[in-house]
């Protein structure tokens, strides 16, 4: 895996944001080394929780030591295997990215109904452009009722469908994500653009306006501003378009979105892409 490929993965991880949901829990018990003498399974759980905290603070060596001990105690712990996959993926070197898959696969094989394992494995596959395989994992996670992050799995599913050009299923997945969590900002923004491309401008505008209400006008990224700008143009909202152009120019002058605006500003096409 070359440097360019690693940079591409890093960009995807930044774009996806919370795609990888690290297991979380408050650490309230005593030291794992002492607890392990009395209750090995609780020690495994505690070490995995500690590892999650270390991963969040980018103390990867400490996380690795905790997970090594957790897996030595119980090699079939779904959570410990899953967390090891997350750790190795976050480190990101070619050798560790390759090793990460073994841990994700093991977590899924131990408990195929574990939606978090499916979601995290799907994330790994997405980052490596293995989209059909990622779709299979996200579909299972997104269909698991009661899974707290089900909406996130559906967001991931929608984004992966977009990667393979399946806009119909992408729209369906984002709609389901919004049904699972009315506060899903990703689903609102993605639906706004999908509906825009379908020239369903009124509904697209509603999705975008809801997104802005949640995030705030001044907290939008370049892509959100570009979507809003195109919608304003399509709806003949000259003032709204001017405001968004000025905001895009001021905040993201070097962005691909602003460069695209400069290319298209005199175009008469009904739908700017």
What's the Cα radius of gyration? Answer: 21 Å
Q: What proportion of the residues form beta strands (DSSP E)?
A: under 5%
Please state the overall shape, judged from the principal axes of the Cα atoms.
elongated
Which stretches are low in confidence, meaning pLDDT under 50 for 5 or more residues running? 14-31
Number of distinct beta strands: 0
InterPro entries: Pilus_4_PilW (IPR013360), TPR-like_helical_dom_sf (IPR011990), TPR_rpt (IPR019734)
Protein name: Type IV pilus assembly protein PilF
Signal peptide: 1-25
Keywords: Repeat, Signal, TPR repeat
Description:
InterPro entries: Pilus_4_PilW, TPR-like_helical_dom_sf, TPR_rpt. TPR repeats lie at residues 151-184. Residues 1-25 form the signal peptide. This is Type IV pilus assembly protein PilF. It comes from Acinetobacter marinus. With 273 residues, the chain is mainly α. It has a domain at 200-272. Helix content is 73%, strand content 0%. The chain has helices at residues 3-16, 32-38, 40-56, 60-73, 78-91, 94-110, 115-127, 131-142, 150-163, 167-180, 185-197, 201-215, 222-234, 238-251, 256-264. α3 packs antiparallel against α4, α4 (60-73) packs antiparallel against α5 and α12 packs antiparallel against α13. Residues 14-31 have low confidence and may be disordered.
